[in-house]
């Protein structure tokens, strides 16, 4: 089965990102699309995996997280679950406040741990890959 690629405009429409966001993230190596240098100009195409990365960034930013936290979370997700772009990966994660490092940390979702954090008044932010995949699939 051939992989499908999407122009910047298509990627923006599918993920809800702006063209400016795509450009900024590309320039800052957050989400780097496939670049096709054939022809006289430069065409930029995003793979389905790139769309998942864009959807994760858009989701995190929509929650009110800063660009830096969203970028670091995407990087952590790539390390923890390198295959997260695969629709078959249905893992659930959460951003949880870690007092010892004084920042949000990406960890696998654990209900008891999430409740304990909430009981302490600490933030817990869900990142359920199955839901992100489902939203992306609906738009494809």
List the helices and strands and how they pair.
Elements: E1 5-7, H1 8-15, H2 19-27, E2 34-36, E3 43-47, H3 48-62, H4 67-80, E4 92-98, E5 103-108, H5 111-119, E6 124-128, H6 129-139
Antiparallel strand pairs: 1-3, 2-3, 4-5, 4-6
Helix pairs in contact: 3-4, 3-6
Task: Give structural notes.
- This protein has helices at residues 8-15, 19-27, 48-62, 67-80, 111-119, 129-139; strands spanning 5-7, 34-36, 43-47, 92-98, 103-108, 124-128.
- The protein starts with a strand and ends with a helix.
- It has one domain: Multidrug-efflux Transporter Regulator, Chain: A, Domain 2 (Orthogonal Bundle).
- With 140 residues, the protein is of the alpha+beta class.
- A three-stranded antiparallel beta sheet has the order 1-3-2.
- Helix 3 (48-62) crosses helix 4 (67-80).
- A hairpin with a 4-residue loop joins strand 4 and strand 5 (103-108).
- Helix content is 47%, strand content 21%.
Count of domain modules? 1
Characterize the main sheet: 3 strands, antiparallel
Helix count, per DSSP? 6
Distance, first to last CA: 16 Å
Number of strand segments: 6
- Tell me which CATH architecture applies here: Orthogonal Bundle
User: Structural class, from secondary structure content?
Assistant: alpha+beta
Q: What is the average of the pLDDT values? A: 91
Strand content is 15-25%
Which H/E pattern describes the elements? EHHEEHHEEHEH
CATH topology title? Multidrug-efflux Transporter Regulator, Chain: A, Domain 2
Shape call: globular
Rg (C-alpha, Å):
16 Å
Arrangement of strands in the largest sheet: 1-3-2
Q: What is the CATH top level name?
A: Mainly Alpha
Low-confidence stretches: none
Helix % is 40-55%
